[in-house]
Write a structure and sequence with these properties.
alpha+beta
């Protein structure tokens, strides 16, 4: 009888261990705050509580922001205590300039390693790349997922240059090269960001060759623009899908452009996007 009990218990435990976990990953260009005078009624002052409302409503497990200045990053830290955060300013590696901060649900993930590299020919130091107009960075973290028996995953978040076409093309190559150096072949990898390139732009090809685009591969998806320019762009033109979630070693289940208001007409000039995957 004891042998039968042990056998059945082993089968149950093996079954539980083999079950895949789902993870939701969001990318969101939050629109930097110093443009308050230019943005008028769309300034961060009027949007910030709605941004928190959105995050609390959709509850991503992981999310990466773009254009986050440190007053914005600190506001999210203060109002989203369920998330841990890592990210540095692109202009000094500390708090100056925009931060592509990454956030993770603290009850689920432990940080194993994290870091930043610059999208340039000298990625390990503060620098501007190629024909870029600004310093640009990638923020990354190696995380241990408690719900998946300690499985290790990687999360990368970036913002490509808005002017330099060479910089955008070289940035994709650099990111893939860094991933190949850092990540084991079997580890799940997620890459989020504002790539300033439409989904069909060839500058994304180095990333496409290494990863899948969640929007294109999820069985439940949409084709809405991610850049809305405060509602001045029609949502269905298909020419302003410039924010993306890429995945590797995970199965896409759903992709969604989050067009809700959450308390204001537009929470940014970009819509957040979220992908749900399993691994």
């Amino acid at each position: 009888m004891r042998k039968i009990f042990v056998f059945l218990l082993t089968i149950i435990l093996l079954g539980a261990c083999s079950q895949k976990q789902t993870v939701s990953v969001m990318s969101f260009n939050i629109r930097l705050s110093p443009n308050d005078e230019f943005d008028a009624e769309n300034s961060w002052l009027y949007r910030k509580s709605a941004v928190v409302n959105m995050i609390n409503e959709v509850r991503p497990d992981l999310f990466g922001i773009q254009e986050g200045l440190y007053d914005q990053v600190n506001y999210l830290d203060d109002n989203l205590p369920q998330y841990g955060r890592y990210g540095v300013g692109r202009d000094d590696g500390q708090e100056r300039g925009e931060a592509n901060a990454i956030f993770y649900r603290k009850e689920r993930f432990d940080v194993v390693e994290c870091g930043t590299f610059w999208l340039s020919a000298t990625p390990d130091s503060v620098s501007r790349g190629w024909d870029g107009a600004c310093n640009r960075v990638v923020t990354w973290a190696k995380l241990k997922d408690r719900l998946a028996n300690g499985k290790e995953i990687y999360f990368f978040n970036t913002h490509f240059d808005h002017i330099g076409s060479i910089a955008r093309a070289e940035s994709g190559k650099l990111i893939v090269s860094k991933m190949q150096e850092m990540v084991r072949p079997e580890d799940p990898v997620f890459l989020t960001g504002d790539f300033n390139a439409n989904y069909d732009n060839e500058i994304l090809n180095p990333i496409r060759d290494y990863m899948k685009m969640a929007r294109e591969t999820a069985p439940v998806s949409d084709t809405l623009n991610t850049f809305n320019n405060w509602g001045k762009i029609e949502p269905n033109t298909g020419r302003n899908i410039i924010d993306h979630v890429f995945i590797k070693n995970a199965t896409p289940l759903k992709y969604e452009t989050l067009t809700g208001q959450y308390g204001v007409a537009y929470i940014s000039d970009h819509y957040p996007i979220m992908a749900v995957m399993s691994y």
